[in-house]
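Slide 14.
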Amino acid sequence: MKNILADIVEKKKEIVAAAKRSLPLSEVKQMAQPAGFHLSHRFRGEDWSLIAECKLQSPAKGRLCRAYSVTELAKIYEENGASALSVHTDPHFLGSNEDFAAVRKMTNMPMLRKDFIIDEYQIYEARMLGADAVLLIARILSPRQLMEFLYLTWGLGMDALVEVHDEEDLRAALDTPAEFIGVNNRNLTTFTTSIENTMALLPKIGDGRTIISESGVQSAQDAARLREAGCDGILVGEGLVTAPSVAQMTRQLSSVGGEMATKSA
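Slide 15: predicted structure.
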């Protein structure tokens, strides 16, 4: 079976090498002014958070959204209660640095750079683009890289969402002081999804971490189930951009925490 993640990482090596030739790391560092941990500040003020992803395409399913551009999706998300935005910069998802920069110009919301980070260059580059957070995928990093990249991210005033898929990934993440643990419900080989992956790993995480369930959320019922199980938030792309009404789905997924608080009051 084709390993989509492995293919993406191999291509990413070429992309990063080309970026370094175009704009050397020394210049990127000069333009990467420290941020102020905007994502974690936002999350600490909320009982439930939605990171809404401006996702146009999936490597497994092809084009997902033709009705809106990345900037149009970002505007809808912001107007309908999302806590933060996730913007792809990887071409397998029709993402680009230009898309990220365009969204950054139109909003002050916390922004996560969604990419496959394998080199410190990409972390400085993310901050140069205006990112408030980056995704660090445990599966594609050594334990040493994961730790080093986490501290580098923090040194630039950004938050890091450390993504895990299975128990081995989780052990690597828990060996770091990462605040945000993202449980990926997508099989990283086949790219199929099931929120049962979050349900299985949640009891193994323990207290003191902010837990985000990623991918596979298709309804408010899915979100409510994850909230009740102990998640602090969700990252949703496909479930939003393929909904009959992106705005309505954004409102439903972002309000799950408030609805539960009202019921329990």
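Speaker note: The domain at 4-17+38-264 is CATH 3.20.20.70 (TIM Barrel).
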